[in-house]
Amino acid sequence: MGFADLLNDVGGFGRFQWIHVTLLSIPGLLMASQNLLNNFTAGMPGHHCTIPNRTSIASSQNISQSEVDDRELLRAFIPMDASGTKLSKCTRYVEAQWHLLESNVSVIGHQANFSELETEICLDGWTYDKSEFLSTVVSEWDLVCTLRPMKQMSQTIYMGGVLAGAVIFGGLSDRFGRKALLIWSYFQLATLGTCTAFSPSFMTYCIFRFMTGMAVSGVILNTVSLKVEWIPTMSRTLVGTLSSFFFTFGQMVLAGIAHSLRDWRKLQMAVCAPFFLFFLYSWWYSESARWLVLNRRSDEALKHIHRVARINGKPEMVEKITVEVLECHMHKEVQSSKTTHTAYDLIRTTVMRRISLCLMVVWFSTSFAYYGLAMDLQKFGVNIYLIQIIFGLVDFPAKLVALGSLTFLGRRITQGTCLLMSALMIFTNIFVPTDMQSIRTTLACLGKAFTSASFTCIYLFTGELYPTVIRQTGMGFTSTMARVGSMAAPAVLILEEMLPALPSIIYGGAAVVAGIIAFFLPETLNIPLPDTVEDVEEKWAKKNVGAEKLAKKEAVALQEMKKGAVEGDGEITGLNAL
After folding, report:
1. How far apart are CA 417 and CA 412, in angstroms?
2. Percentage helix, strand, coil, to 5, in the chain?
3. According to a count of CB atoms within 10 Å of the terminal CB, is the N or C end of the chain lower?
4. Taking the CB of residue 577, how many other CB atoms lie within 10 A of it?
5. How do residues 120-146 score in pLDDT, each as one tens digit?
6. In the prediction, which pLDDT does 211 show?
7. d(Cα 154, Cα 41) in Å, to the nearest integer?
8. What are phi and psi of 127, to 5 degrees?
9. Taking a C-beta distance cutoff of 8 angstroms, is the pair 347, 463 a contact?
């Protein structure tokens, strides 16, 4: 008997669980907005050097706008780029080149004379195209040309905050509880996320984004644990997958909000202010009864279990379940909780060490490939709002397939297959010509769909593999590698200048390695959650030992059979001789 049996006694997956899971999942609609926000708040609008008073200068040359349009007029002030089809983004002519406006001057002639014409940097700033974005942090603080890397740096800083949050909030949650840390994370995200919209400088913006990233980790980690620890074993797969659909739908919500606002400050406010509402209703949540019992707060755990029984329509269980019954069900776990647990317990024993090392690789590669595909939407040459919606839509069928696979084939096969399939899509894209943009975009969408399904599986898988006493520490420890992967993904794109296919080779290679390693993890399908480190060792080490013992017994039995056969032959020979 264990805590899972108590959950079944008070209604299994009843009304309380439905309300509990739904309220925890709703913020997921805006969690995608936090992670992918940089695609829109730091979008790169079309731009060129500002030319002061160009209309009056043109008038002095007896050139009117009725004779040439604005773009044609810019040719006299701004050189073309290396392709010869677009205006240069970072230079302008020192003196206006009026002869370039003549109809008999070809682009080829223009390019031939380019090196002979004196140019300079954009001394008067830049003029930005507002057809796609009205305002972004790029146009706000001129993060273009020599400052272009600052755009990616802002996302790396945010992911650094998510990394720090995974480390800090993971340990604090095991110490102070899931509910308390989740409430604080909601408040921190709402407050600092809203303050980000009023940032007076890029440095202030980055600081706020870092702190917001920390809160995002707190929300994700504690949401997963509160869900997993209050639902029955048989419902975990369905709940885990359906919850991930909130994040998927949130990607399309982000595209809709970004398209309607198109101003980074308003968009930042729109995706962060709702967390004040989540903060207010989060006080309704019930703290994890498992965690309370393991921290010697059985009286509080009992109150929450009685509350669940009443909400689920099982009032008769209030009298039957007492502190003694609760502690009897979790006697072994309570004894184990008297020992202080640290991060070292994640690698101290054989099975825990194997789980932790494998999960680190899987988390890193899943995040690495996911953000490598999802954080540079402008490279696809498609409307950025449309491609964001497409990237969200492809996740639905991928996750439905993952749900079926998780339910019938198990976690291990699903995890490994999703990673290997995403690697296949990434590698295939390397061989598709760049002019076949629709095929390249389709393959990228499929690759992203498989990495999303991998994320769905790994969150559920990790929560099931680690015991309650250090579940949050384990989630924080392994998901730290995901944050490292998300920070490394944008940096790898720099290697594209050396070899265009190199980033894809690295993304795909990492997914292949992780896909293979995923098959070394224990299977958790329909297995009750472990509560102690000893549970983990007994469940999965015993299987290995049992297999070895069975093999030895079979070998001994085979030898005895052979021996018996030889003795039997000897007896038959002796009888024949007589």
Report:
1. 9
2. 75, 5, 25
3. C
4. 6
5. 788 888 888 888 888 889 888 988 888
6. 93
7. 10
8. -110, 130
9. no
Return the number of other C-beta atoms located less than 10 Å from residue 568's C-beta.
10
The Cα 421–Cα 419 span in angstroms is 5
Which neighbouring-strand residues pair with 120?
92
Rounded to whole angstroms, what are the CA distances from 263 to 102, 205, 211? 39, 15, 22
Q: Are strands 91-93 and 47-49 parallel, antiparallel or unpaired?
A: unpaired
Please spell the DSSP secondary structure of 158-206, one letter per residue. HHHHHHHHHHHHHHHHHHH-HHHHHHHHHHHHHHHHHHHTT-SSHHHHH
Helix 437-465 × helix 471-492 angle, to 10°: 160
Fill in the DSSP letter of residue 96.
-
Asked if residue 419 has pLDDT above 80, the reply is yes
Confidence category of residue 169, pLDDT binned at 50, 70, 90: confident
Rounded CA separation 464/456 (Å): 13
Residue with tokens 């579940």, as numbered in its chain: 471
Side chain identity at residue 525, one-letter code: L
List pLDDT tens digits, range 503-555: 888 888 999 999 999 999 988 888 877 878 888 888 777 555 444 444 445 44
Max intra-chain CA distance, the chain: 133
